[in-house]
Design brief:
By secondary structure, this protein is an all-beta fold. It contains no helices and ten strands. The strands form three sheets. The chain has a four-stranded antiparallel β-sheet, with no helix packed on it. Strands 5-6-7-8 form a four-stranded antiparallel β-sheet, with no helix packed on it.
Amino acid sequence: MRGIARHDNYIFAIDTYREVAVLDYSDPDNPQRVASFSKPDDVSDFEYSIAIDGDTAYVGTRGSGIIMLDISPLTAIPEPATVLMPLLMFLSGSLLLVKRLRR
């Protein structure tokens, strides 16, 4: 696992450079994988950073910015939006704090 975030009874985990897995852990003795999202071909590999605010997951990438995912339909996550060029990111209340890469 590269990065982990919790949302309600779900864990979102970057389990490779190319995929975010969604696990239902409402039964901690028997967690179930309920969904996953593979990165688009034109996006760099996923990084270690993942943060969730409401129905949006923010996943850091290597060189392609932040992938924003609407996670409200867990079984049918739509195509992402991409912004910025992060190195690190953290949620602080309702703020997404991003450290940008130097060019």
